[in-house]
Amino acid sequence: MPDWIEVVIRSFCIIGGLFFITKLLGKKQLSKLSFFEYIVGITVGDIAGTITMDIELNILNGVVSILIWTLFPLVISHISLKSKKFRDVVEGKATTFIQDGKILEENLKYEKYSTDELLEQLRKKNIFQVSDVEFAILETNGELSVLLKKEKQPTKWEDFFGEGPKQKTPLTVIMDGNYLESAIYEGGYSLDWVRSKLQEKKRIVKDVFLAQLDSDGNLYADYYDDELKKPETGENQ
């Protein structure tokens, strides 16, 4: 068998295996990686690339190595769900950086976080005054969570009118010119009802790129033939 054919076969096998492993690990590992998960991801990727290109290596040994590395985060995640102490050791604990508008310098030093880095993270959240912050906490995944003081928080609906009406997630009923029938019926609507909403707009389903229903049953539709309006320049054309 030519070498390039073997490389192609190995590549497809490894890609399929990595896809399966990714699904097995779940969505949590795809969002914010812990330190250990970061190491596992790099190592598995390196092993996969090596056994794909180096045809002298035994592919079975490489697959076994990938499975062993994949098994570790699964086992650790399972134990972490059962034991708070183990979770604290593996994932660490959140660290408070600011409390009642005051920076806790010792906690910054412990996490090897400079003042410039702290201020930069605050600016990314549109916060420029440390004294405006009630709490700022460094999460275990490296994200900085910030709670502003009550008087510095944006005004909410409930501040004036109490609890507002409950909002439902917009329901996508048309995509790429086709009805999503299962979503329509699961949302308590009928295909004829959605079709009548389109008829009110003098449109057919093939005209629609995307259509969604809000919590009040109003239909929003984005069409294929949308035309961008030219900005007015004030000059006579």
**Helix proportion of residues, in percent?**
40-55%
What does the oligomeric state look like here?
single chain
Element-level helix/strand string: HHHHHEEHHEEHEEHHEE
Radius of gyration: 27 Å
Report the end-to-end length measured between terminal Cα atoms: 69 Å
SSE class: alpha+beta
Q: Strands of the largest sheet, in order across it?
A: 2-1-3-4
Q: Bin the strand percentage.
A: 15-25%
Tally of extended strands? 8
Largest sheet: 4 strands, antiparallel
Question: What is the overall shape?
Answer: flat
- Average pLDDT: 82
The low-pLDDT segments are 228-237
Number of helices: 10
Protein architecture, described:
By secondary structure, the protein is α+β, with helices and mostly antiparallel strands. The chain has helices spanning 3-25, 28-31, 35-53, 59-82, 84-91, 105-110, 115-124, 157-161, 181-186, 191-200, and strands at 95-99, 102-103, 133-138, 144-148, 171-175, 178-179, 208-213, 219-223. The strands form 2 sheets. A 4-stranded antiparallel sheet has the order 2-1-3-4. Strands 6-5-7-8 form a 4-stranded antiparallel sheet. A hairpin with a 2-residue loop joins strand 1 and strand 2 (102-103). The longest helix has 24 residues, at 59-82. The termini are far apart. The model is unreliable at 228-237 (pLDDT under 50).
